[in-house]
Amino acid sequence: MKRIFLLFNVLSLVGCVEHHITEKPANNLIDHGDYAIDTFFPSQVQDERVRFLIFHYTAVDDTESLRLLTQGKVSAHYLISSNPGKFNGKPVVLQLVPESKRAWHAGVSGWAVRNNINDTSIGIEIVNDGFHEHSSRRQWIPYHKEQMILAASLARDIIARYQIKPQNVLAHSDIAPLRKTDPGPQFPWKTMAQQGVGAWPDAETVTKYLQGKHRWSSGDVMIIQQALAAYGYTIPKTGKMNSETQRVISAFQMHFRPRNITGVADMETEAIARALVEKYCAQMPLLICCENLRYHYIA
Ligand SMILES: [Zn+2]
Q1: How many A from CA of 76 to the centre of ligand 1?
Q2: Which range marks the domain in which residue 18 is found?
Q3: Which residues are known to be catalytic?
Q4: How far is the CA of 59 from the centre of ligand 1 (A)?
Q5: Which of 151, 173, 211, 255 is 20 to 30 A removed from 109 (C-alpha atoms)?
Q6: pLDDT digits (tens, 9 = 90+) for 227-255
Q7: Of 194, 218, 237, which closes a domain?
């Protein structure tokens, strides 16, 4: 009986398709030479392949940036020059790779449950030297205001088209914290978030998680590791400070607490991490760590 029912359904569908092809005008049919594609029956279950937006600095000047990103072994979808040109009074961004193609900007990378972020991201490179070294001290180079205005406009457009979540707008250093420092602590993440680009914690939630303690006092390494893992970072969950943990915390601080990026596990870092998890983790049902985190200390 079941087989008869299935057969009837198949025949009905075939009949329906044939009926539709012979009776509808052909604007849903695309000729591909030896065959044709009919787009009349779109599936309800589909989404975008692009899930992440990644910001970088190039660490070299305009000429070298363009050479490396067009003739070298790396690429990005967009390049914002040090002084963007104008067209009809509007700032111009260079598109080096179509958004439908994969650019090679992320390298070995991971965020939450995903790796190889090149596969699922749009990459924006910004011409900026990164930092200059002065007697073993790093002086980070600010971005130009015009670059950030253009970056915000471009990012808002990409975010809207692919419905990218705030917590998936990231630094290269977020997805490759042991290898990368770009776009660095001078990237204005808070201002960008205020313009609809990326995540930022609520100040009152950060205060709540400070629990009356001084922001520079020692935080709990295990809680910070668990919160960062829940948020998406690849970090050991040992409860012990080691060089890997310190570098991941430093990457987190470059994004969310740029005035001190030494990687120290202080109370303010812990509070910001927990505030971000509280604000954004509920929207990440795929992230198993979020469940663990609730068990450990949020509930
Ligand atoms: Zn980069």
Answers
A1: 9
A2: 2-38
A3: 125
A4: 9
A5: 151
A6: 999 999 999 999 999 999 999 999 999 99
A7: 194
